Amino acid sequence: MACASRIASALRRIRCANSTFQRVSLIRPAPQIAQRRWQTTQEATTSASQEANHEDDLPAGAPSAKTIKFTSESYPELKRDPKFAEITKEHVTFFKDLLGSDSAVIDGLTKDAGEDIEPFNSDWMRKYRGHTKLVVKPGSTEEVSKVLKYCNDNMLAVVPQGGNTGLVGGSVPVFDEIVINLSRMNNIRFFDEVSGVLVADAGVILEVADNYLAEKSHIFPLDLGAKGSCQIGGNVATNAGGLRLLRYGSMHGNILGIEAVLPDGTIVDDLSKLRKNNTGYDIKQLFIGGEGTIGIITAISILCPQRSPAMNVAYFGLESFEKVQQAFREAKNQLSEILSAFELMDGRTQKLLHKANGKKLPLEGDHPFYCLIETSGSNTEHDSAKLEAFLEYVMGEEIVSDGVLAQDQTQMLNLWSCREGIPEVLGHWGGVYKYDLSIPISELYSLVEEMRERLTSAGLVGDSDKHPVVDVVGYGHMGDSNLHLNIPTRRFDKEVEKAIEPFVYEWVAKRNGSISAEHGLGIAKKAFIGYSRSDTMIKLMKQIKNLYDPNGIMNPYKYI
Ligand SMILES: O=C(O)CC[C@@H](O)C(=O)O
Ligand SMILES: [Zn+2]
């Protein structure tokens, strides 16, 4: 079998080149998300919950945030809460006096802050845009405390903001909420090489933290495409999942402690470095995934695993979702503790990747499904033996039809780009309807098929400009039963939206899945929480919100 020999010869090459392969570490450059660009669209029609924003002639690499439609227009049902005060010159003076440095306050009230303030008002997807006139950048926990207390005392609404790389509009204002940006708080406070405990400010960029840990043979237990821009405080506040959750677990499991500030200025000093601390309620968990609705995380303490010196990345083509499941089962069974990622991409995502940016795909021929497997272990020989046995098995049993194994770091990056490049590429035609869903694994892909059929029979999908929908595709974290259902479109269209929603949420709810597996609720999914949470759970969440933030100043109009 040609494909078998492809992998077998790759394995032979690895055995010959052990010494170089052994030391490969996987550090992927993050996509330049600030330069993502939406394509021209025709006659974009409005859609309250999904509309992205387009313009006819964006200069490549320099999108102007000013052309993004305001969230308050896309969501006309949202009204500014009159209980919040409007920002005055006196407020601005207070923040300037408090924070001292000129660069710590972006003041759009007393002067035209123009392009300086817009990146804080809008998100990288160009879907959400607020009206803030003030961005403050505290440089310490004490400053965050003073800022928040002042806002709370004066009924000024705020939005905590990290790297602003979220996917649900949670980190940008809707109206004139003050943006509290954490980027100046970017120090690593502590690292212990024996325990692997890292304590760092919330504003440290994920990739910076990971590079720091790499020098100490450790790894940050979270990895995602936006690592070059996102901040670890935001990662914790959104309980980001990423590409290696399968191996290292979630933020809820890895975070040992947090430091946070409540709206009344109280500093929650719970920066525990302990793995075990069984003394009452685990209150830090409320801030993890709390999306900045009860307080601002200012620092985290996190358990970081040892970095694996031996890494392998393989990319397979498979003929059915049944075979994908078999491959996943075998990977868990045979690679067990060295398996660090098992990602799924359908054939359509790979074709679109090629179509949009001409990317040469690793395998010749078409396969309905592709998987990317990564192993991370401590012993190359041991890992290679396991991998070889696994590959021989899946090829021999015809579970996998074709595959390649990276020979060096460049090839690893190239294989990873076939997965990580997908979200950005799908925006190429105009915009994307995005759904981030937890679904029982056996039915993970059925939703994509049903949705494709549904939209196709409604005459909405096609190759020509007559059809709004380019395709219906699925990819995601197979290892976590987390599907990213993406529907790239040429234009946003009420008819398309009606065909997708609420069908998609009902479909997921019927299977006891989650309507937001890892991206959170923000503004995009807030209206749909009831599909995944019972009335009792929502009531309990509201009680917590009211307890911590009685004035409701924290990230209003989102989440809850
Ligand atoms: O854009 C998406 O739908 C998914 C983004 C991210 O969670 C990923 O897994 O690449
Ligand atoms: Zn994801």
- In CATH, the architecture of the largest domain is 2-Layer Sandwich
Discrete helix count = 20
What percentage of amino acids are in beta strands? 15-25%
Q: What is the CA-based Rg, rounded?
A: 24 Å
| Overall spatial form | globular
Count of structural domains: 3
> In the CATH hierarchy, what is the superfamily of the largest domain?
Uridine Diphospho-n-acetylenolpyruvylglucosamine Reductase, domain 2
Enzyme class: oxidoreductase
Cofactor: FAD
Family: Belongs to the FAD-binding oxidoreductase/transferase type 4 family.
Pfam families: FAD-oxidase_C, FAD_binding_4
Feature tags:
binds (2R)-2-hydroxypentanedioic acid; D-lactate ferricytochrome c oxidoreductase; binds zinc ion; Oxid_FAD_bind_N; globular; Uridine Diphospho-n-acetylenolpyruvylglucosamine Reductase, domain 3; single chain; alpha+beta; Uridine Diphospho-n-acetylenolpyruvylglucosamine Reductase, domain 2; five-stranded antiparallel sheet; FAD-linked_Oxase-like_C; FAD-bd_oxidored_4_C; 560 residues
Concise synopsis of the structure shown:
By secondary structure, the protein is of the alpha+beta class. It contains 20 helices and 16 strands. A hairpin with a 4-residue loop joins strand 5 and strand 6.
Written description of the protein model:
This protein has about 550 residues and is α+β, with helices and mostly antiparallel strands. The chain folds into three domains: about 1-30 and about 310-420, Alpha-Beta Plaits (2-Layer Sandwich), CATH 3.30.70; about 35-180, Uridine Diphospho-n-acetylenolpyruvylglucosamine Reductase, domain 2 (2-Layer Sandwich); about 190-305, Uridine Diphospho-n-acetylenolpyruvylglucosamine Reductase, domain 3 (2-Layer Sandwich). It is built from 20 helices and 16 strands. It has helices spanning about 1-15, 20, 70-75, 90-100, 115-120, 140-155, 205-215, 230-235, 245-250, 250-255, 285, 320-335, 345-355, 380-395, 410-420, 420-425, 445-455, 495-500, 505-510, 535-550; strands at about 105, 135, 160, 180, 190, 195-200, 255-260, 265-270, 295-305, 310-320, 340-345, 370-375, 400-405, 430-440, 475, 480-490. The strands form three sheets. Strands 13-10-12-11-15-16-14 form a seven-stranded antiparallel sheet, with helices on both faces. A five-stranded antiparallel sheet has the order 5-6-9-7-8. Strands 1-2-4-3 form a four-stranded mixed sheet, sandwiched between helices. A hairpin with a 4-residue loop joins β5 (about 190) and β6 (about 195-200). The longest helix has 17 residues, at about 380-395. The radius of gyration is 24 Å and the shape is globular. The termini are far apart. Zinc ion binds near residues 476, 484 and 518. Zinc ion binds near residues 476, 477, 484 and 518. Belongs to the FAD-binding oxidoreductase/transferase type 4 family. Its EC number is 1.1.99.40. InterPro entries: FAD-bd_oxidored_4_C, FAD-bd_PCMH, FAD-bd_PCMH-like_sf, FAD-bd_PCMH_sub1, FAD-bd_PCMH_sub2, FAD-linked_Oxase-like_C, FAD-oxidored/transferase_4, Oxid_FAD_bind_N. This is D-lactate ferricytochrome c oxidoreductase. Its cofactor is FAD.
